[in-house]
Specification:
This protein is mainly α. 53% of the residues lie in helices and 6% in strands. It is built from 28 helices and 7 strands. It has a 5-stranded mixed β-sheet, sandwiched between helices. Strands 1-2 form a two-stranded antiparallel sheet. Helix 17 packs across helix 18. It binds zinc ion.
């Protein structure tokens, strides 16, 4: 997952920006608020994580918003005719202070969210939304942007400048700049209310992740769990003051391995229920009413803006362009994926029946909490591949070195650890690396925050603290990768699953997309691309984990230091398409519900999210042994912000590109082919949003991607008439 900054509407404008002195906003006698100061220290300045206190956020955000509004007014009221330089470039220069403050604010929101911070966040969310609207609804400003837009063809601007004009102009129009005053007021009220609802939604999910855990008191309750998971559960219990016991936290990284390995069907059911009921307990943290209101407000906003639905509004500036095209792709994959699930369940049921007969125990029917457990057993039986046998070779820190090596092979990037005394971090577990290009030139910093802790959202994601830019002098990027590995005992290597290793490479792909950026203007840099394209670089990078080069040198046994045996590697490769039915269906069910919810919603109809999920999945023929990867009441992608709303399909869309792009390497000299890697850097990783993604992809690949490579990757039969997702 990729976490964009919180405020989507008008984002291109809000997050333009280079350091700008903030002296005018601090009272002369008071101690300066560190959040408002230009970042100091090495590498063009670094975030002042060591000086930040939660109570500083509110005054800092308020001062930074006031400062940016002044800058915006100066641009809007300029007496000279509107030009690229005095309008579009000036917007890129505005809001530097706000960018810095909100960048640190977002790090706290996703990784340091305690009660005090959450109170600030709840208070500020609607104010930040109103602030965004104040900019996009500024009539004079929009007229100037529109004037530059009208003249863009006749001028001698660079292609990147023309693209920036288009991005700004469409951003304004899509945010309602052309509406009358009454409609603008209503739009702004909707945005503010939505901001509050998004904050409440994610705080509720976080509360259910923090407040619930399964505490195990007896060793016998751990039956089936491998030693590394036992150690992690013991450490988790200890950190909650339960020394001598074991705790299974209510997060994905604790839930998934427990469901895969625990022999205790009763406990599996408990853990499954607790995890998949997040946001749906009917208590103070229940999200159902919030979701109904979000859907109504989004539908109303779309109507105000002149769109058929929220989905139509969201998709318009994406690569897919329309919900219909996204649905077409999803539907083409859904049927073969469901058919594969039925085969997978039949294999599991046969194995469970044989087990029951052998042990003289009652027969069971595969339930959702059995899927991972029996899938693992089938994997062992069919491919003789034991995930447990793989994990001792997957040491977190070794794999991190492997990722660095891949970045070196593909793009010539080098990673060097930064002296912790020179770059402050938000929490002691966070580490920082400096990244340089093949000429040794500094290109950015990579922050790594790998461990779960209270107040940190679950899952894994990439974040961008500062965008790369060049137009007023070089500013290098700062990116972070975040995960939720259980820390374990001091000094012991952290062993992770194959899936987690794959996610690690995925997020690192986002980080490289940020680090490789080489553009003029910050609004267009790095990962600032359309949502259905942004997952392409990250999904592509997952492929390098399974290359023999990485496995031989970085998949080393934590005790013997020996590389993963060839025999085990062969098994991994043979099992690569295993369980694709489950993986595709649990994801696609969520993507379809997301799109259908946003197509069905109207301003005056209250949708019951639980009933909608149940009925829609039933109509789709959802296998009863699987639930959505993120059930509706915990679907942060689509309800914690607008970011992935009507956009969860993006992962599948991007995967059609990444599957096809990987074949480009295979058709050439393999995973490390220098010529293909150079095209990947030049046409995809370095260009940000300076070109249309479909054009960038075509330049890299020589043709548009179809669906065939995706179907081959997942081991599904190719449909007779395949939609071509990326053709215009
Ligand atoms: Zn991602």
């Amino acid at each position: 997952m990729f976490k964009a900054r919180h405020f989507a509407v008008g984002a291109a404008l809000l997050f333009a920006g280079a350091p700008l002195m903030a002296a005018s906003v601090t009272a002369p006698a008071a101690a300066p608020n560190p959040l408002l100061q230009p970042w100091t220290g090495p590498y063009g300045g670094v975030p002042p994580f060591d000086q930040v206190k939660v109570e500083q956020f509110k005054p800092a955000l308020e001062a930074a918003m006031a400062e940016e509004l002044k800058e915006i007014d100066a641009i809007a009221n300029n007496a000279a005719p509107a030009t690229f330089e005095n309008t579009i470039a000036a917007l890129e220069r505005a809001g530097r202070t706000f960018n810095r403050v909100s960048s640190v604010f977002n790090v706290f929101s996703s990784t340091m969210s305690d009660d005090a911070f959450q109170a600030v966040e709840r208070e500020m969310a609607p104010k930040l939304a109103a602030f965004g609207d104040q900019i996009t609804q500024n009539v004079k400003l929009f007229q100037r942007v529109a004037a530059v837009y009208e003249k863009r063809g006749a001028s001698d601007l660079t292609p990147e400048q023309k693209r920036l004009i288009w991005v700004d102009y469409t951003g304004f129009v899509r945010a309602g700049a052309q509406l009358d005053a009454k409609a603008k007021d209503r739009l702004s009220a909707i945005n503010q209310r939505l901001a509050t609802l998004f904050t409440n939604f994610s705080q509720n999910v976080l509360a259910d992740e923090t407040d619930y855990k399964l505490v195990l008191e007896k060793e016998g309750d751990l039956a089936g769990l491998p030693p590394s998971l036992r150690a992690g559960a013991a450490a988790a219990a200890e950190s909650h003051g339960l020394k001598g016991e074991w705790a299974i936290l209510n997060t994905r990284s604790s839930m998934e391995p427990f469901l895969t390995y625990s022999d205790r069907r009763d406990l599996r059911e408990k853990v499954w229920n607790t995890y998949y009921s997040r946001g749906n307990h009917g208590d103070a943290h229940d999200n159902k009413a919030i979701i109904s209101e979000i859907l109504q407000l989004r539908a109303e906003r779309a109507q105000l803006l002149g769109y058929k639905s929220h989905a139509h509004w969201r998709l318009e500036d994406q690569m897919a362009k329309t919900p219909e095209r996204a649905m077409e792709l999803m539907e083409a994959v859904w049927k073969p994926a469901v058919a594969r699930v039925h085969e997978e369940v039949a294999d599991m049921q046969a194995l469970a029946d044989a087990e029951a007969a052998k042990n003289g125990t009652p027969k069971i029917t595969i339930e959702p909490w059995d899927y991972r457990y029996y899938a693992e057993k089938v994997r062992k039986a069919k491919y003789d591949l034991d995930q447990n046998a793989v994990m001792p070779y997957l040491q977190l820190e070794k794999l991190r070195e492997g990722m660095f090596w891949v970045a070196g092979q593909l793009f010539g990037f080098q990673f060097r650890p930064v002296d912790p005394k020179t770059v402050p971090v938000v929490q002691a577990d966070v580490r920082v690396w400096e990244v340089t290009d093949p000429t040794g030139k500094h290109i950015g910093l990579w922050f790594f925050d790998p461990y779960a802790r209270p107040g940190k959202g679950s899952g894994a994601w990439m974040n961008q603290y500062r965008n790369q830019e060049r137009f007023d002098g070089a500013v290098t990027t700062i990116v972070s990768n975040n995960a939720n590995f259980v820390k374990g005992k001091p000094g012991e290597p952290i062993l992770i699953s194959w899936d987690d290793a794959s996610t690690l490479f995925h997020e690192f792909g986002h980080a490289l997309h940020g680090l490789a950026s080489s553009v003029q203007y910050p609004t267009l840099s790095g990962t600032s691309v359309s949502r259905d394209y942004v997952e392409f670089p990250s999904q592509l990078l997952e492929h390098w984990l399974s290359t023999p080069e990485v496995l031989n040198h970085y998949a080393l046994h934590y005790q013997t230091g020996k590389p993963i045996p060839q025999e085990l590697m062969d098994k991994i490769e043979r099992a690569a398409k295993f369980n694709q039915g489950f993986i595709t269906v649990e994801y696609l069910a969520g993507a379809l519900i997301d799109m259908k919810l946003h197509l069905a919603a109207t301003p005056d109809k209250k949708i019951d999210p639980a009933a909608f999920e149940r009925d829609t999945l039933q109509a789709l023929g959802m296998p009863k042994e699987i639930v959505m990867r993120h059930r509706t009441t915990q679907f942060g992608h689509i309800f914690a912000g607008d970011g992935y709303s009507a956009g969860y399909y993006s992962y599948l869309w991007s995967d059609t590109l990444s599957a096809d792009a990987w074949e480009a390497f295979q058709e050439a000299g393999g995973a490390y082919d220098k010529a293909v890697a150079k095209r990947l850097l030049d046409d995809v990783f370095s260009v940000g949003n300076t070109i249309d993604p479909a054009d960038g992809y075509r330049a890299f690949r020589g043709h548009d991607p179809g669906i065939d490579a995706l179907m081959r990757k997942r081991g599904f039969p190719a449909p007779a008439s395949a939609p071509a997702p990326a053709s215009k």
